[in-house]
Design a protein that fits this description.
The chain is built from four helices and no strands. With 99 residues, it is an all-alpha fold. It has a domain of 55 residues: Winged helix-like DNA-binding domain superfamily/Winged helix DNA-binding domain (Arc Repressor Mutant, subunit A, Orthogonal Bundle), CATH 1.10.10.10.
C-alpha cells in the first residue's frame, strides 16, 4: 500500500485523480462546462466547431472517468480545477449566477 499525499483530495469511486493527461484546451473546456454552457455555446465562444467541442468533452469524460457533466464538475471541484462559493482554487472569472 502506498501513502497518499496529505493534500490530495479523495476521489469518488469510478473517477480518476490524475489530471496529467488533460490538455490545456480540455481544462478550458471543463471550466466552460462548469459555467453551464452547452457544447454549441462553448464552440461559439472558442471559435471552434461544435463537433470539436463534442470530441473534447468525450475525451475529458474518458480521461476523468466521468459519465456526465455533473460528475465532471464534481471531479473538477475535487481536483481544485474549479470552485463553488469561494471554495477550492479557481481559475474561472468571477461572474454572478443569473438564473
Amino acid at each position: 500500500m502506498t501513502e497518499r499525499n496529505s493534500r490530495e483530495q479523495p476521489v469518488p469511486q469510478g473517477l480518476v485523480s490524475v489530471r496529467a493527461d488533460l490538455s490545456e484546451r480540455e481544462l478550458e473546456i471543463i471550466e466552460l462546462v462548469a459555467t453551464g454552457l452547452t457544447n454549441s455555446e462553448i464552440a461559439s465562444q472558442l471559435m471552434i466547431s461544435k463537433r470539436t467541442v463534442d470530441n473534447h468533452v468525450s475525451n475529458v469524460f474518458a480521461k476523468t472517468g466521468a459519465k456526465n457533466r455533473i460528475a465532471l464538475i464534481n471531479w473538477a471541484m475535487d481536483q481544485g480545477k474549479i470552485c463553488r462559493d469561494g471554495f477550492n482554487c479557481c481559475s474561472l472569472p468571477a461572474t454572478p449566477f443569473q438564473g
